[in-house]
């Protein structure tokens, strides 16, 4: 029921096209997966997501376990039926969220004890319990429970988290029984290339149907991010899909594709949209800027999104200035469509053997300014780590 | 370009069906018009409004004059093009908003001086200026600037506001020149039946293409509301459309239709939706109630709205509990569709000669509990009046 095959390979880079087959449909790769943490891509209804060209959506096991509860979702027919998104889905295990959002009480080899960020209630998650949760949710792809290394962290701390991640991956694999769900492993190893290779090699030997690269884009310099991706990809089996977690700005997507990544997720395009930051070919613009007050044309000329087809930039500006709820929907639609179109262009450039040229042209014209994503995540990490008594 | 003809008349009540012809399309009456104060029906995109069955949408001249400015909207192609709602529209003059939201500095026969509720800036509106604003906005129907009587107010205060409303109506009519826009008068007269009749008769003599009944549903008992509507309707020309402003709960709609009202607007269904109050045949339910946590069926069995077609009540409950933005969109869609369907049923019952039976059956099964709308408006009035130095 689950499969992956890679097709065209870029002659100049590690980029490739591929096709992911899941119980809920096929997904062309490279693909960007919008984040629907709590069972909804914030501010956008599933029918608009389909129109926009979304193919596979994320949910988060940590969040959905806490609220409304995985057993409830299972009783209501599973995550797809619950959320009205009938296509392919992937659930993150919540490893990252437990270690960044929750108040950790203790972590040992057995599992992690934490207090909910919602109501302070105490919970205990083990690899086996997380498999129970993700199997109840029933997405097409589930992720193992992992322990990302903190940033910064010492080589010993990183190694300890990475090896625990491997032991937990093996336990996840052993307890995962759902035949209509693929379980992906997560490569860790902090910012240490050797540890990344070690992690990828170790997990590759366990023969998962797919591999993610986790614990990156949390505040480290980009050169380090890509060094870690390169180290992991080199040691992962080429016939399996590769998924880079938490990365999704336009330039990062192109850089990730060039390094052989097939799948991406990130809250970046949807989150910045709700702050009025809209993606254009040249980079992001803030729609609340006074220069948009009288712009009769759309946010970006030629954009084929529902928002640009119907509304002037002046109207979107007005919605943001007036604190109107519709602003969130229309801005999110624009940013998601921008990213989906970018990935469509990437796939078509790959098939035509001109990916490298496409990437260079796009990157030359596109400026990424705001390091807000990384700064935010860094702050979250620091706060979470400060609260942790034992790691 | 503008016309109205009434068709079927109910044998038992004053209810009637009709057809409003406007430059942007035809509207079957009785009709409910969703409120899009700032140029958007809160939380719902125009494409979803069309799917739901919305036929004519309101904008508010006071709000749009303050932000983004009527001249800007005119330069951007007018209200329809600006908002992406290409069907018929109506703009309220903002008389009610000036007297309830703004900080009034002075009112005399010439006009009203007030401070903006947004930024405290001082503005001066006269009947002529309001016509300029509404003609720039370019809706199919514009409303005259009126002065609603406060509640409570003495007979002398009421008469003074009512007579000023008449003088202002005449000045609006004299300065209104746009041929593709119909100007409706507004009957005032407080809670005094004689003054209501006097107001309706006076305005009827000026031969407006349509008549609204204003200044009601602001805290008075319902029997008084309907007494005033009856007094006004009896004195208004039967060949012109009648529009009851600010009334829109299910039972009020039926009671208004029975008294000969053709058009209604109210923020009620959209506003309560954002608080999680959802309309059902039996009355409204609060979706945040724990009893919906596990409800696999829709909010209302058999409801044909986009929300009920796709989602369980449990999912809507989850969205509200999780403070997800999608909650506002899905709840608003449900409530608006409920009201549109009710009006479709009303028109079809009228055409089949069974309106009175339909009304009785619906009303017997439907409980309206929460007087929140009236209470809120009453509080606003009191606050606004308290700030007013001279009226």
Largest interface: A-B, 40 and 40 residues
Q: Which runs of chain A of at least 5 residues are low in confidence (pLDDT < 50)?
A: 383-391
Determine the CATH superfamily of the largest domain in chain A.
Answer: Queuine tRNA-ribosyltransferase-like
Q: How many β-strand runs of chain A?
A: 16
> Class of the largest domain in chain A, according to the CATH hierarchy?
Alpha Beta
The strands making up the biggest β-sheet of chain A line up spatially as 4-14-13-12-11-10-6-5
- CATH fold annotation of the largest domain in chain A: TIM Barrel
Oligomer: homodimer
Computed structural class of chain A:
alpha/beta
The rough form of chain A would be described as: globular
Give the CATH architecture of the largest domain in chain A: Alpha-Beta Barrel
Radius of gyration of chain A, whole Å: 20 Å
Structure in words:
Chain A has 391 residues and is of the alpha/beta class. Chain A folds into 2 domains: 3-267 and 371-387, Queuine tRNA-ribosyltransferase-like (TIM Barrel, Alpha-Beta Barrel), CATH 3.20.20.105; 272-365, no CATH class. Helices cover 44% and strands 18% of the residues of chain A. The first copy, chain A, contains 16 helices and 16 strands. Chain A has helices at residues 46-52, 61-66, 70-75, 79-83, 95-100, 127-137, 155-175, 193-204, 222-235, 250-258, 268-274, 306-310, 313-321, 326-351, 355-365, 372-387; strands at residues 3-9, 16-22, 25-29, 31-33, 57-60, 89-92, 103-107, 112-115, 122-125, 141-143, 182-187, 210-213, 242-244, 263-265, 277-280, 283-286. In chain A, the strands form 4 sheets. Chain A has an 8-stranded parallel beta sheet. A 3-stranded antiparallel beta sheet of chain A has the order 1-2-3. A 3-stranded antiparallel beta sheet of chain A has the order 7-8-9. In chain A, helix 11 packs antiparallel against helix 14 (326-351) and helix 14 packs antiparallel against helix 15. Chain A is globular. The model of chain A is unreliable at 383-391 (pLDDT under 50).
């Amino acid at each position: 029921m689950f499969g992956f095959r890679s097709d065209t390979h870029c002659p100049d880079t590690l980029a490739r096209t591929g096709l992911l087959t899941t119980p809920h449909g096929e997904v062309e790769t490279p693909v960007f997966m919008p984040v629907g943490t709590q069972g909804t891509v914030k501010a956008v209804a599933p029918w608009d997501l389909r129109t926009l060209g979304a193919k596979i959506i994320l949910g988060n096991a940590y969040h959905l376990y806490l609220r409304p509860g995985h057993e409830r979702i299972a009783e209501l027919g599973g995550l797809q039926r619950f959320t009205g998104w009938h296509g392919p889905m992937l659930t993150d295990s919540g490893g990252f969220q437990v270690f960044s959002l929750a108040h950790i009480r203790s972590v040992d080899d057995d599992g992690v004890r934490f207090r909910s960020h919602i109501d302070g209630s105490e919970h205990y998650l083990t690899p086996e319990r997380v498999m129970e949760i993700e199997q109840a949710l029933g997405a097409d792809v589930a992720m193992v429970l992992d322990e990302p290394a903190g940033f910064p962290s010492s080589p010993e701390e990183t190694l300890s988290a990475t090896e625990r991640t491997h032991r937990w991956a093996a336990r996840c694999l052993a307890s995962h029984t759902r035949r209509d769900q693929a379980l992906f492993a997560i490569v860790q190893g902090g910012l240490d290339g050797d540890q990344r290779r070690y992690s990828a090699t170790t997990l590759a030997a366990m023969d998962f149907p797919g591999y993610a690269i986790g614990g990156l884009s949390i505040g480290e310099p980009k050169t380090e991010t890509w060094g870690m991706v390169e180290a992991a990809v080199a040691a992962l089996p080429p016939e399996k899909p590769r998924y880079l977690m938490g990365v999704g700005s336009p330039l990062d997507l192109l850089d990730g594709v060039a390094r052989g990544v097939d799948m991406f997720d990130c809250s970046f395009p949807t989150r910045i949209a709700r702050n009025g930051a809209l993606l254009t070919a040249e980079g992001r613009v803030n729609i609340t800027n006074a220069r948009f007050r009288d712009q009769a044309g759309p946010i970006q000329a030629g954009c084929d999104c529902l928002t640009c087809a119907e509304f002037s930039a002046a109207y979107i500006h007005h919605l943001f200035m007036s604190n109107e709820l519709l602003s969130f929907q229309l801005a999110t639609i624009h940013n998601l469509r921008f990213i989906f179109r970018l990935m469509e262009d990437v796939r078509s450039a790959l098939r035509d053997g001109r990916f490298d040229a496409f990437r260079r042209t796009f990157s030359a014209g596109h400026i990424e300014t705001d390091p807000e994503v990384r700064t935010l995540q860094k702050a979250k990490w620091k706060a979470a780590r400060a609260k942790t008594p034992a790691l």
